[in-house]
Amino acid sequence: MDDPNPGLLNVYSKARNEGGGNFTAPELIQSIQTGAGPDNILVSKDCMTVATANEGEGDYGDELVNPVGSVSIIRGPFDDTENPPSHTLISLNEWTEDELLEMGVHLPLSLNAMKYWSAELGLDFDTVIASYTPDVMLEPEYLAFSEDESQIFVNLQENNAVVVVDVANNTAIDIYP
Question: Secondary structure of the chain in the HEC alphabet?
């Protein structure tokens, strides 16, 4: 985890038994960039699809940096350096802030709250306020496949909600507070 920066999914070869209790060390095959701050990894039954919950937690140094929450879907093969895996970043920016609040999704720091605290405490939230989209407040923590692996259920712990992602279409299709 390296919030608020993009993460990496590193794929290694299997350790091989050379006999006599000697094993070769796994070797790095692929490094695939994911979304910001991956928190959880999910592997399909056939090991050809990997998903990461990219929390994208904010960081406050001189100013607030708060990347969007997202889900990465990475499709293999993972052992072929000639044909690298494909990576799709699934946006959670399917709903407006008003829609999320109306549904009962908790937003830890809404746009109005950022404006208030920026003015009240003199914090530098200007960059984040100027580029605000609700998905900066959606923070994926954990993932689970549906029985047939056609959907991924994404737990948004801080938001008290679950997002449903359609794996075939690479889209967030629903949210349940």
Answer: CCCCCEEEEEEECCCCEEECCEECCCCEEEEEEEEECEEEEEECCCCCEEEEEECCCCEECCCEECCCCEEEEEECCCCCCCCCCEEEEEECCCCCHHHHHHHCCCCCCCHHHHHHHHHHHCCCCHHHHHCCCHHHHCCCCEEEECCCCCEEEEEEHHHCEEEEEECCCCEEEEEEC
